[in-house]
Amino acid sequence: MRKLALFMHTSLDGFVAGTNGELDWVKVDQEIFDFVTKRLQHCDTAVYGRTTFDMMEAYWPTAAEQPNATAHDIEHSAWYANIQKVVLSKSLTLTKPNTILIKDHLAARIIDLKQQPGKEIILFGSPTAAHTLMHEDLIDDYWLFVNPILLSKGKPMFKGFQPNTQLKLLKSTTFANGVVCLHYERLLWR
Hints:
29% strand
């Protein structure tokens, strides 16, 4: 069965966005881009909530064509064009190539997706979708990019998860900008 891995930036005190959805505190640089690009070689499906999908669609399809496109923009734009996209939304209507819309029966549809042949499935950001998938106990790996900042309030990283969800730290990576990536695997204990 394929794994579903969550990639999320978080503050040290456990918030994934400011009170108004701000992300200006997130530290990303070439070292993190290179790390994520290497990791994406193990993925062939990306899951997004509607808001994150809208942000991705507004930028990545044409990012490589921009005159100031960076190497990362070009690489990630190509990856985004070829990846199977799954969008979790009850309100979105969608007719985009290489994109599946899940409006209902979320747990069954994600379990079915995990049982299909292929590489790892990745959930990028999308805190509301992440909370829903945590509640359904469908996230297998957590890749948390802990930023060296205390927000004190905002959208929480963890909400709606199954009580006593146990995780095992598999690896930590420290970046020069102070961000630490913690890779946890969810343990099956039930």
